[in-house]
Write a structure and sequence with these properties.
The chain has ten helices and twelve strands. By secondary structure, it is α/β, with parallel strands linked by helices.
């Protein structure tokens, strides 16, 4: 498997950027990508504009992440522009894909079978969801009509996912899995949360900086949290991901031991250590 396990993520939709809808998709995807040990290096929200989408994805491809994921813009309406934007940006002609069309047809046939007076006719808006850029493959959407789209662009694989959270999550867990295995593979992620007996991040800043310099593979972050058992407390989070889960655990353990020594020297006690 390639050592490049970088991932970029783009959430597409005007509704996100005017505050009508909160982008929970990106948070969910980031957590799931991170759990494999891969690294999300960029996440952004984009308007439903062909040039904006195209320019941003082209720029991302030039950075050569192993995987780019987008959410939104795959539906039947005029403002669902993601597929068209990719087609224009990379000069890939659009055509109706027979496999994608069958996915769309089957979905509407199913809906018609459970709803009275519902037409399964494949009108122009519905057929729009079967349009694929040259070289793309459709991915089955078990919870919706619009197939996801996978497309190899040089060293990078681009995957276009629906914006409806239930559809995105189901695709991620099913038809997207073989692509995830081929691109970012399997690894692991370790996260440890140390709950301190007092606050004041400024008192521990030097210790964190010193330990971080010696353990660059582990991300060290202090933050204030309200915990049910302890109330308002300062926690220090250690996290590490990569191809080798055992190695990540060892790196976090070594960092934790050294950090605990430094915190104890400052008079801090550790109330709890929590795994995430």
């Amino acid at each position: 498997m390639t050592s490049n396990r970088n991932v970029e993520l783009f959430a597409i939709g005007n509704e996100l950027l005017v505050g009508q809808v909160q982008d929970t998709n990106s948070h969910w995807i980031i957590r799931n990508i991170t759990s494999t040990g891969a690294k999300v290096v960029r996440a952004a929200m984009l308007r439903d504009e062909i040039k904006t989408i195209g320019d941003e994805i082209k720029a991302a491809v030039r950075r050569k992440p192993r995987l780019i994921l987008t959410t939104g813009g795959l539906g039947p309406t005029d403002d669902d522009l993601t597929v068209r934007a990719i087609s224009q940006a990379f000069n890939l002609p659009l055509s109706e894909d027979p496999i994608a069309l069958e996915m769309v047809r089957a979905r509407y046939a199913y809906i018609a079978s459970i709803r009275e007076n519902y037409s399964a006719e494949l009108n122009e808006a519905r057929r729009k969801m079967a349009l694929m850029p040259a070289g793309a493959i459709p991915l089955k959407n078990p919870n919706g009509a619009a197939p996801a789209v996978a497309l190899a662009l040089g060293e990078t694989v681009l995957v276009l996912l629906p914006g409806v959270p239930s559809e995105m999550k189901e695709i991620f867990a099913s038809s997207l899995q073989p692509i995830l295995e081929r691109t970012i593979g399997a690894g692991g992620y370790v996260e440890r949360n140390m709950v301190l007996d007092r606050g004041d991040e400024s008192r521990i800043a030097d210790v964190l900086q010193t330990v971080q310099a010696r353990h660059s593979a582990v991300y060290i972050k202090s933050r204030g949290q309200i915990l049910a058992q302890y109330g308002q407390r300062l926690t220090v989070v250690l996290s590490c991901g990569g191809n080798d889960l055992s190695a990540a655990r060892a790196q976090v353990h070594e960092t934790e031991v050294e950090l605990l020594d430094g915190l104890h020297d400052l008079g801090y006690a550790i109330l709890d250590v929590l795994d995430s």
